[in-house]
Amino acid sequence: MERTFAIIKPDAFAAGNAGKILARIYAEGFKVVGIKKLYMSKVEAEGFYYVHNERPFFGELTDFMSSGPCVVMTLEAEGAILKWRDLMGATNPAEAAEGTMRKEFGTSIGENATHGSDAPETAAFEIPYFFSGLELL
Q1: How many Å apart are CA 18 and CA 7, to the nearest integer?
Q2: For residue range 72-83, what is the model confidence (pLDDT) as tens digits?
Q3: Which of 82, 85, 90, 119 is 20 to 30 A from 2, comparing alpha carbons?
Q4: Which of 33, 34, 26, 32 is nearest to 87 (CA)?
Q5: Whole-model pTM?
Q6: Which residues partner with 76 through β-bridges?
Q7: 2-38+71-135: CATH homologous superfamily?
Q8: Does the CA dihedral 43-45-48-51 come out positive or negative?
Q9: How far apart are CA 72 and CA 82, in angstroms?
Q10: Known catalytic residue: 115?
């Protein structure tokens, strides 16, 4: 079994789609081994997205991610990283495949409803950023 990190972003939460997204996660066979609703501070968002700190969209991204509540999760499944990325769809909802989370719930590249680790190394950073080992069941 593999673990990955996922976020239901503030746009999806504000639109009332967190429950629908969570239901899809379970329906697709993921085990949720950690879950929290939180309001990320600007500093926490900057730390989480530090890999993008030189990119022109960094300020906008961290402003957005600290703009409202979100749901952070650790998901487990066979091939969880790729499986979650496939379910999320392309970063740009306009280019995402039908049936994906971002196609259904995203509205723009910036407000695309979900986040997911893109590699085992990324998951190894992202999961403990929000969860201690004792919180993962």
Answers
A1: 10
A2: 999 999 999 999
A3: 90
A4: 26
A5: 0.94
A6: 3, 31
A7: Nucleoside diphosphate kinase-like domain (3.30.70.141)
A8: negative
A9: 18
A10: yes
